[in-house]
Amino acid sequence: MIVKGAERQQRTFKGVDFWVGAIGERMMITLMPLQKGQEVGIHAHPHEQAGYCLQGRFLLTVDGQPMVIEPDDSYVIPGG
Fold first, then answer.
1. How far is residue 1's CA from residue 12's CA, in Å, rounded to a whole number?
2. Strand-pair partners of 60
3. Are 42 and 62 in contact (CB under 8 A)?
4. d(Cα 44, Cα 42) in Å, to the nearest integer?
5. DSSP secondary-structure letter at 67?
6. What is the DSSP annotation of 33-51?
7. pTM of the full predicted structure?
8. What's the domain range around 51?
9. Distance separating alpha carbons of residues 60 and 65, to the nearest angstrom
């Protein structure tokens, strides 16, 4: 599946604006331009979610394990 940039959907979750790209059976791609001080908070979703940090840094906690994500780091969060 290909989602062209002009076709992506803008959404807001817990006060954070983001864009949804392609969604597959088990994976969802999002673009989240977080601002300093923004928090998404603990949540779960059915899809795996992968990310790549372009700039800045943020704290990501998955399964109780906190880690600092910095530029060029990538990650996958399991569904559920």
1. 23
2. 67
3. no
4. 7
5. E
6. -PPTT----S---SSEEEE
7. 0.74
8. 5-77
9. 8
- The string over 37-54, giving b where at least 16 C-beta atoms fall within 10 Å of a residue's C-beta and e elsewhere, is eeeeeeeeeebeeebebe
> How far out from the chain centre does Cα 27 lie?
11
Q: Do the bridges between strand 27-31 and strand 16-23 make them parallel or antiparallel, or are there none, so unpaired?
A: antiparallel
- The 10s digit of each residue's pLDDT in 5-58 is 999 999 998 888 999 988 888 888 888 888 888 888 888 888 888 888 999 999
* Number of separate domains in the chain: 1
**Assigned token pair, 3:** 């989602």
Q: First vs last Cα of the chain: how many Å apart?
A: 23
